[in-house]
Amino acid sequence: MKKLFLLLISPFFLFCCKSQSNIRKKEAEKILDKTIIALSEKKGAISNHDFLILSSMKITDTAFYKNGKYGIGITIMNSKLTQGLKYKQVYSYKGYKVVSKDSLNLFKPFLSPIPYVDLNKSKLKEMNYDPFSVTIIFDKAGEVLYTFPEDYKKYYQEE
Q: Of 7, 14, 47, 75, which sits 20 to 30 A from 151 (CA to CA)?
């Protein structure tokens, strides 16, 4: 009886989890595009030396991120100033080089693998560099709870 009950409710849980995942993947591309727009407004066009680092993960620190379920990080770095970045695969997104640390596979559907490129081109050791970076925390419904820096929240909220 217990096995029959599990068999009956398993498809329900699988369907629920899958539909949430699809919603997040669909929104991830829109968020990435909005981040590129935000960067363009801040510093101008992205150069050939710039590349993206994309990350996603489940939130386990619920004390700091109240009601947060998952987060996305998007960092734009300049390869001329990058040193020591470890990665195995390089991708392309709308002409931009991308390194993905995407544990939730939100960005994977729209990234295309390209041949390996060395993005660690800094010739200066121990240089301080502050790349453009945005972190977005979502609740389980996919609504934006927090952005860091906070003034970028306007880019990610629905009109």
A: 47
